[in-house]
Amino acid sequence: MKTAIATVYLLYLGVLGVQNERNPNFDEKSKQKELLNQYYQLNLKIFRKGSDMKDVEALFQLFTEDFTYTHQGYGGVYTREDLYNGYRRNLESGEYDGSIYDIRVFSLISGKDALAVSKRFVTKTNPDPPKETGEMTVFEFRNGKIYRITEYW
């Protein structure tokens, strides 16, 4: 009897999985997760010593024209242009020196046109950040691009 119930339960989960794959929202979430992955990979490339504005240009292709970045700890709301100028300034001043060499994502929560991420930068001084110190970031999407990033750390 327990085996039959377990089998029915597994079949039920399997059907849910098939339904999710056929659900257009499932495809959209997959695209959003891929966009998030591209965002982090491009940032890691930019953070390396020797990166250049071509790397920044590639990153900014992921954003909508009216993109905004919000980080109250760093001064508030930044337009796409503000953020672009910040990347350029950091490149020119040598801030991107490879000290951040990975990004560890601890968890990901999907919402309507949004993903909330708990992550931490991996650095030479913090090579194994614990999950409990994760920093929350919310990514919002529109028309297949990142519309807004809001940092809560």
From TrEMBL:
<dbReference type="InterPro" id="IPR032710">
    <property type="entry name" value="NTF2-like_dom_sf"/>
</dbReference>
<dbReference type="Pfam" id="PF14534">
    <property type="entry name" value="DUF4440"/>
</dbReference>
<dbReference type="InterPro" id="IPR027843">
    <property type="entry name" value="DUF4440"/>
</dbReference>
<protein>
    <submittedName>
        <fullName>Nuclear transport factor 2 family protein</fullName>
    </submittedName>
</protein>
<feature type="domain" description="DUF4440">
    <location>
        <begin position="54"/>
        <end position="144"/>
    </location>
</feature>
